[in-house]
Amino acid sequence: MLSKAIPCRLWIGVLLFLSLTVRADWEVNMTPGVTEVSQQIYDLHMIIFWICVIIGVVVFGIMFWSIIAHRKSLGAKPATFHESTTVEIIWTAIPFAILIGMAIPATSALINIYDPSESDLDIKVTGYQWKWHYDYIEEGVGFFSNLSTPTDEIYNRRDKNEHYLLEVDEPLVVPINKKVRFLVTANDVIHSWWVPEIAVKKDAIPGFVNEAWTIIPEPGIYRGQCAELCGKDHGFMPIVVEAKTQEDYDAWIAQRQEAAAKERELRDKVWTLEGLMARGEKVYATNCAACHNADGSGIPPAFPALKGSAIATGPIQSHIDIVLKGKPGTYMAAFGSQLSPVELAAVITYERNAWGNSKGDMIQPVDIANMQTAE
Amino acid sequence: MSAVLESHDHSHDHHGPAKGWRRWVYTTNHKDIGTLYLWFSFIMFLTGGCMALVIRAELFEPGLQIVEPEFFNQMTTMHGLIMVFGAVMPAFVGLANWLIPMMIGAPDMALPRMNNLSFWILPFAFALLLSTLFMEEGAPNFGWTFYAPLSTTYAPSTVTYFIFGVHIMGASSIMGAINIIATILNLRTPQMTLMKMPLFVWTWLITAYLLIAVMPVLAGVVTMMLMDIHFGTSFFSAAGGGDPVLFQHVFWFFGHPEVYIMILPAFGIVSQIIPTFSRKKLFGYTSMVYATSSIAFLSFIVWAHHMFTVGMPLAGELFFMYATMLIAVPTGVKVFNWVATMFKGALTFETPMLYAVAFVVLFTIGGFSGLMLAIAPVDFQYHDTYFVVAHFHYVLVPGAIFGIFAGVYYWLPKWCGNMYDEKLGKLHFWLSFVGMNMTFFPMHFVGLAGMPRRIPDYALQFADFNQIASVGAFIFGTTQLLFLFIVIKTIVSGKKATAEVWDNPEGLEWTIPSPAPYHTFSTPPDVK
Ligand SMILES: [Cu+2]
Fold this sequence. Notes:
The longest helix of chain A has 34 residues, at 36-69. Chain A folds into three domains: 27-113, Helix Hairpins; 121-258, Immunoglobulin-like (Sandwich), CATH 2.60.40.420; 269-374, Orthogonal Bundle (Cytochrome Bc1 Complex, Chain D, domain 2), CATH 1.10.760. In chain A, helix 2 (36-69) packs antiparallel against helix 3, helix 6 crosses helix 9 (341-353) and helix 9 (341-353) packs across helix 10. Residues 1-24 of chain A have low confidence and may be disordered. Chain A is 43% helix and 16% strand. Chain A is of the alpha+beta class. Chain B has a two-stranded antiparallel ribbon. Chain B has two domains: 31-251, Cytochrome c oxidase-like, subunit I domain (Cytochrome C Oxidase, Chain A), CATH 1.20.210; 263-517, Cytochrome C Oxidase, Chain A. Chain B is globular, with a radius of gyration of 23 Å. Chain B is mostly helical. Chains A and B meet through helix 2, helix 3, strand 7 and strand 9 of A and helix 4, helix 11, helix 12, helix 13 and helix 14 of B.
């Protein structure tokens, strides 16, 4: 009997050990995070947790003791007491006192989180269905941040990578040891910007600008997700924050500013048909050829030909619409948020004038940009 | 004339129900209507449960396998709406119909025809709601809390069906509540003073007041949505000068009392059952009544604890945090009273008692996580994660649902005259207990580790616990078919029950034969 029991227990022990070490996946608790605020919240969480555990042990202890000792089958005779004002007062007063003890640190943490003092850097965070837009207000840099997990991984056609669903094309970059203020709002429905490791969760509400702040003490990559149901792809709009040292951050922002200036210049200039065609050919090759084929012949029946297609040779507005907004329920994605106005104008113009399509018309990047801001 | 009188007398003599479908459609008998409510609620429970299983099946593994995100959102929304408005609330109204007249020595409900109406509009409400699943744009997909503008400007057109469905459900609840209040206040047997009423009656009286206070608010908020969608107003649309946060304030002013509407009657049930199987009077009857009343009062001033992250001013956060923490005090008193009732009793553990004990333990765990959620700064990390999902399922499944199961096992012999199969009842309990904990306990972990709620797909580190939860959900779900089997078996072929059924239970309902005759207490009974 005994000799059987011991190996069994050993096995359970080994399994438990393995599950705790090898599989870091069995995370059961809140992250203490990396900021002072996140640490403070974590401490509060642990205090209230242990208070609950202790109360639970006492109450359930008495209860289970009754369950075990006061059974009728053991010959227990019921007592007759059923009232005691003293006891009632005691067990009203004690929880009350505990709660006051809990409310004090909670209040001071809250006051700290609501700290209104000056920030070093202001970033406007805007929630869109289903991506985030970041605006470095003073620096004049802004960009969208999209989920970058490939569809094939989501639909199980390919192995999922380590950061599955928690990766973006353009992370939010912030300097360390600076007070960064987030001005959080939304463009369509309510979203919520949440990064657990810096303990910032603020609802992004259309028509409102909410404030939140953080000071990240060490460089690193911190991942989060939209936390408020915002429609179909609510589960697919992650947040990635990259904290860099001041020099790295400065270099990054300078590079972004330069690129933005160039992009603006390109966007605002008047393009020739040739210019757009040349640029469009490249954009087409990297973004569209996979489905529509390099020569525009498509891969029927799933992926239609663009050569001679009704849309590519019809009114330009419906052509623009399908490229910008995609076609829900098909593989045709909304490229409006994935490509820049220059790229969009180029690829649309290209499609209308390549492979024997010869509409001869074109669309200027600046017009695309205007359409997008009007939406 | 004399013929009319005669036939009137005739029906009075026999007290029998009408035959066939007319009995159920035309009935004004509180027992029949109670039965209708209970069966309706069980059908809705299975329907909402199937939707939960779709959700859990999709979440069994990371990646999208079974349903698309769009349909997933419809499932979470419909699951919530159906469980709250279709399963839990009608079940409690059904229990109230069956039990309140029998417990207070009344011949029937005070407003029997309205009683019929308040039940029979419900199937239409849910037919409207469920029909949206078969429409081109699909069912409502904005969560059971239907936050604007996702539920207005950005909603599928079927939202209008949802709005009318909610209006009808609200009308039904308000009528039910009026009826219950009228019955309790007017039809008690003369010797039954308020402070002699069984606790189930007390908790329902308070619940009914909550219903009358907040269902109109719900009706108001969906009407404002209707106006925004179809009549060009902008209550909730920022673009038109409206305020999306206003929606949340109004919704939760209804929504928070609503969660107490779903738990107070269960408090009452458990307060009836624990004394019976402890063979000891309920400890602290008076304090139970006061605690329930204070919980009901506090439930009106804590609503914004669902909204700690919307960007309220500091003073608002503090007020709602303190008020919410305060609810722990009367709730604690109730739990302590139940434990004190069991203390030094002579306990036995028939199925109703098992469910009642599990209720106390697991509801308390849900209460603990509720207390944690009340701490506003920490809620910034918990909010809208699976920790919240774990919390409210702990108060609703082993709270409301186990309370209902306990009540059904406890009173079923009185209703149908037959005893349920104790072995099967215990099997049902243990399978439900294991399944339920397996489903919802791991949700605490993934929530704390950072998994947001209402997502159809998740990052890899949440995979293991989600798998356990999904297995648990299927255990819990299929176990409920066993419950159906047990109930039918009891009705069809259970052993005859005595009038008392249990060992010396307290209450007027045990003084009448089992099954309870079609009409009871035509003359007011005496109360000790
Ligand atoms: Cu979102």
